Amino acid sequence: MKNEQDLESKVYDVIIIGAGISGIGCAAYLRRKQPKKTWCILEGRDDLGGTWDLFRYPGIRSDSDLYTFSYDFKPWNSDKAIAGAREIKDYIAETADEYGIRQQIRFGRKVFACQWRSATGLWTVTATRTDTGEEETWQGRWIFSATGYYDYDQGYRPDFPEEETFSGPIIHPQHWPEDLDYEGKRIAVIGSGATAVTLVPALAATAAHVVQVQRTPSYVMPLPERDGLLTLARLLPSRNLTHRLMRTKNIVQRHLFWVLCQRYPKLMRKLIRRMNAANLPKDFAIDEHFNPPYDPWQQRLCAVPDGDLYKSLSSGKASIVTGHIKRFVENGIEMQSGEIVPADIIVTATGLNIKMAGGIAYAVDERKIVWSEHAIYRGMLLDGIPNFALCIGYTTNSWTLKVSLLCEYFCQLLGEMDRLGKAVCVPERPSGGMELKPLLDFGAGYVQRSIDSLPRQGNGYPWMMTFSYGGDVKMMKRSSVVRPEMKLADAPQGSATPN
Q1: What average pLDDT does this structure show over 447-454?
Q2: What does the longest C-alpha to C-alpha distance in the chain come to?
Q3: N or C, where is the chain less crowded by C-beta within 10 Å?
Q4: Where would you find the membrane-spanning parts of this chain (predicted)?
Q5: By C-alpha distance, which of 17, 8, 4 is closest to 113?
Q6: Virtual CA dihedral for 306, 309, 315, 316, nearest 10 degrees?
Q7: What is the pTM of this model?
Q8: 183-197 per-residue burial string, b: 16 or more CB within 10 A, e: under 16
């Protein structure tokens, strides 16, 4: 208890909010790059892992390869390039233990308010203890928001006509019941994204039959669960070199594929169709069920490790119905076409909601922060908000590739401010103004539903939200840590000195 009291009484250099892959990554970078800085992590859940602790639905896995989804400083040593939630969470936990992070995490602290006070040059963070309901306050010079942008409390769940007539359970994957028995049951999975594509083969292993009900198809591509280059890479003299080779190869390969999709969308559409056809029966209606109305990478592609979805469809354990839902009926779903999809259980894999900065109420000197009024700077700072870093990963690449760059820059910024003797950093927009546009240029439904509530971005560096890892690496190296747009100030007179 004494340890917790000591932690609460400190003024930290950095308060990290969230103990998922981004928060643990930031803490590890601080340990490695800024070992003298004091910090803590406030986590609302009772364990670390974030997304990989929250979601418990069958088959949950990454949709990025783990050589790029893992941290650059900690090799991914599993043979699996695409891994499940348990393996990913174990990897995050190993990182926390290796860098002595776990003891700096205060679990069960649900942060609901963060207030910056210019008079003290500090953030006051207020959290509720989930075990006692008591409120606690924490003070820090910086906030590093590592909550991602998903709503961890509630997934996206549209209302369907006459739901009440269905006699079985209706389940959203974000709230999967641990005791759900689906063996031998008929299951309808509504959705076409990564969650649906993951669930269908996982459920089909024991269910009587699984039907994927989709309004429009998504791009689906087979990926080997074990990378073919790994056997050769294992011959290298160290795990770090193996990891580096696999990571570099996958970064280049994924970027090349994305560039080809942008420049030659018709050609890449044909290539993806050919892959699908090669993995499905000759009489399968590919153009009905695997032919999206948009170009590749306008939305995220769905990875199918070792073709598990194709195998379920080919075996007859699973099937796909494409079209609009008319209503729910007692024993399933009626489509606009009149077709009845029989089901004992309906799973609504209809997506996620966005909740900016964890839904926490932020304010600067009592003025409430409205995120859409602020512009992103260098992918992580926001104009007009002092000493605040926001961690958002890539949408068209592995999330963690961007996180690593942001954490690296964050540590450089802290070091440079120390060198200059400055304590406060606030980006300011150009005096002549600049054109603003949505933060994320991405067609996914969860983005489009919330785009107006997110911060904005400009039309040129350093005010752009970039999505090219290679381009970002070059910009980080060639650009000075502190630029003219960043207004630095001394610590307020009489403010707390570092612990």
Answers
A1: 75
A2: 77
A3: N
A4: 12-30
A5: 17
A6: 180
A7: 0.93
A8: eebbbbbbbbbbbbb
> pLDDT: is 300 or 89 the higher one?
89
The residue length of the chain stands at 499
Which run of H or of E encompasses 271?
Answer: helix 265-278
- At which residue do the structure tokens 């549209």 appear? 158
Check pLDDT > 50 for residue 499: no
Whether the predicted pLDDT of 494 surpasses 80 = no
Q: What is the secondary structure of 115-178 as a DSSP string?
A: EEETTTTEEEEEEEETTT--EEEEEEEEEEE---SB-SS-------TTGGG--S-EE-GGG--T
Could you tell me which residues come within 8 angstroms of residue 238 by beta carbon, excluding any fewer than 6 positions away?
none
Predicted pLDDT of residue 235: 87
* Closest listed residue to residue 16, CA positions, set 127, 133, 154: 127
Rg of the chain over Cα atoms, rounded to whole angstroms, equals 24
What domains, with CATH codes, occur in the chain? Answer: 2-152+354-489 (3.50.50.60), 163-348 (3.50.50.60)
3-state class (DSSP) for residue 246: helix
468, two tokens = 């090219």
